Amino acid sequence: MTVVVISGVSQGLGRAMAEGFSAAGCIVCGCARSAAAIQDLKQQLGSVHHFDVVDVTSDQKVAAWAKRVVERTGPPDFLINNAAIINSNAPLWEVSAAEFSSVTDVNINGTANLIRHFVPSMLSRSRGVVVNFSSGWGRVGSADVAPYCASKWAIEGLTRSLAQELPDGMAAVALNPGIISTEMLSSCFGDAAMHYPAPDDWAAVAVPYILNLGPKDNGQPLSVPGM
To answer: Contact at 8 Å (CB) between 202 and 177?
Structure first.
């Protein structure tokens, strides 16, 4: 059975993916910082899946979680780095050092932490796909979200470098999910965010698309079709 590890499953795209991969017959192992959301997912999707409260910015906590997951399910077939936050809309010079660091700590360091502790198990069988969520703002800039853009540009470079380090049979891709109506988008677009696809509608396209990714896609900057 296909094992999918996803960070940031408490809401938005992460929650929709957890539900979508479960419906597709995969074993889903997800994490988030919200204990209430994790408990809700456990009740909704059942004991075949594994959901844990984990702060991806803590290398120690990610290491312990990865060990538990691999012991339960074996190495993941798909490692999806979805967890991310965005800064409040503001010019770069008005973003505090603490807020800037929070964005990069989750979006960049959190991604690196999961790669550090899950990929070695995937290397043991030279199989698996690392999907690092990027953004349209990881390929172009935009005013008032410079910290977020910087973090997603970093994900693009990190992923292309990782792709060159992986053996044949594996892949790393940077995936732009598209513009989806989430809380994060609402923080930038306000009520206009409601005019974009809902996470569940997005997942109906994204989940089968991700499941079809493989070695042929290694190193490619990809986007979910139609989004």
So the answer is: yes
CA dihedral 37, 41, 43, 49 (to 10 degrees): -140
Both structure tokens of 179: 């513009």
**Predicted confidence (pLDDT) per residue in 107-124, tens digit:** 999 999 999 999 999 999
CA dihedral of residues 222, 6, 32, 123 (deg, nearest 10) = -110
- Rounded Cα distance between 175 and 220, Å, is 9
Q: Which phi and psi (to 5°) does residue 14 adopt? A: -65, -45
Q: CB-based contacts of 118: which residues, under 8 Å, 6+ apart?
A: 5, 66, 69, 70, 75, 76, 79
Q: Which of 78, 148, 153, 202 does the annotation list as catalytic?
A: 148
209 in active site:
no
- What's the pLDDT tens digit per position in 175-202? 999 888 767 756 776 776 576 789 999 9
Q: Note whether 203 and 16 are within 8 A (CB).
A: yes
CA atoms within 13 A on the CB side of 85: 17
pLDDT above 60 (res 78): yes
